[in-house]
């Protein structure tokens, strides 16, 4: 894709929504200007400030897609500068998927100017994971010591992890020609799927604590962003699998099955509700909406989904995301850090919400290319 897609409409054109990549660049610049001062985030925590943590990592993952879509060179340079500041290290917890997410940006950077040295810390960490895999249940049981001591966090026992970790492992196999990372990722992806996927609803539970949970109307609780993480993760894994591989065929079938269900759950205003089966009185929510818009747009462009069937859903989702940009330039209506549906307000934003918006924008822009 060429940089020309960032050009503005002619001066005499009727007012219209900005092209996807122009909107993405504006939001990326807003977030870059607010990297260190996190006072704009309502529930900023120590984790929000971690430059190698998942919250910021998702922003940088979105930045890699933006840079690859013809953005000005400063976007690529911002990624390289971030990696250098981090000394290309994943997060501190070797087996924790959230601490592996930033490696997706490092692997991209290694082939876009940073060189092989950018891979060394990730290779060391992932090498430990694949040669000495964690042996633990996938059941999510929080001990008295607190959430962080949950034993299964050493594996991918919560659905968010399927975005955070396996795309990085699969991408590292591509870069290094070492199939062990991909093999490990696929084995664990399917273990998590077999455990958390509800075959009746075609959706993932966030973790095993939600198997028997019901809302006040007796409905199962499926978290929008949680399922968005999964679909976004598959959009990043599938292109890196051999076209004739059983894993790719199985994952494409799973993706299509989820897509068909998710499309029915979009609200008339274009947003997906925080709790997917509870659309009534739901606020706009942009993190889940952005991931669905990204994944479905990717699916169309990749030929996995029918354009005629899914493009209207994508266009409604993208229009909803544009409406969520606030007067000061931030992306609003982003549900804060959590593990289940929760309240959200117009001013709520987060690094990961911006990252998801960038992914959606670049995927929608590909749909706009002349065929």
TrEMBL record:
Transmembrane segments: none annotated. One of its GO terms (molecular function) is hydrolase activity. InterPro entries: 6-hairpin_glycosidase_sf, 6hp_glycosidase-like_sf, Glyco_hydro_88, PolySaccharide_Degr_Enz. It comes from the Bacteria. The keyword Hydrolase applies. The keyword Hydrolase applies. This is Glycoside hydrolase family 88 protein. It comes from Novosphingobium organovorum.
């Amino acid at each position: 894709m060429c940089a020309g897609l960032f050009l503005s409409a002619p001066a005499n054109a009727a007012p219209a929504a900005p092209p996807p990549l122009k909107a993405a660049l504006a939001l990326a610049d807003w977030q870059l200007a607010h990297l260190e001062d996190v006072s704009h985030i309502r529930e900023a925590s120590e984790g929000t400030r971690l430059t190698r943590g998942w919250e910021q990592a998702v922003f940088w993952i979105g930045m890699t897609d933006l840079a690859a879509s013809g953005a000005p060179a400063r976007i690529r340079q911002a990624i390289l500068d971030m990696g250098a500041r981090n000394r290309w290290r994943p997060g501190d917890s070797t087996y924790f998927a959230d601490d592996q997410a930033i490696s997706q940006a490092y692997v991209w950077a290694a082939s876009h100017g940073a060189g092989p040295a950018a891979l060394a810390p990730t290779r060391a960490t992932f090498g430990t994971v694949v040669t000495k895999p964690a042996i633990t249940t996938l059941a999510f049981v929080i001990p008295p010591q607190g959430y962080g001591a949950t034993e299964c966090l050493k594996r991918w026992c919560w659905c968010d992890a399927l975005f955070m970790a396996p795309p990085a492992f699969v991408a590292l196999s591509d870069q290094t020609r070492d199939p062990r990372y991909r093999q490990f990722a696929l084995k664990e992806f399917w273990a998590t799927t077999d455990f958390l996927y509800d075959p009746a609803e075609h959706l993932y539970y966030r973790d095993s604590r939600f198997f028997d949970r019901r809302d006040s109307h007796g409905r199962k609780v499926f978290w929008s962003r949680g399922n968005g993480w999964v679909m976004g993760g598959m959009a990043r894994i599938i292109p890196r699998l051999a076209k004739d591989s059983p894993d790719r065929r199985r994952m494409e079938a799973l993706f299509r099955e989820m897509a068909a269900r998710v499309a029915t759950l979009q609200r008339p205003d274009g947003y997906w509700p925080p709790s997917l089966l509870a659309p009534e009185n739901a606020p706009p929510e942009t993190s889940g909406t952005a991931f669905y818009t990204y994944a479905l747009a990717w699916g169309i462009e990749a030929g996995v989904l029918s354009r005629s069937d899914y493009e209207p859903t994508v266009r409604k989702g993208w229009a909803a995301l544009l409406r969520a940009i606030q007067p000061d330039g931030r992306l609003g209506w982003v549900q804060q850090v959590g593990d289940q549906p929760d309240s959200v307000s117009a001013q709520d934003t987060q690094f990961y919400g911006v990252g998801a918006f960038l992914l959606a924008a670049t995927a929608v822009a590909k749909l706009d290319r002349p065929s």
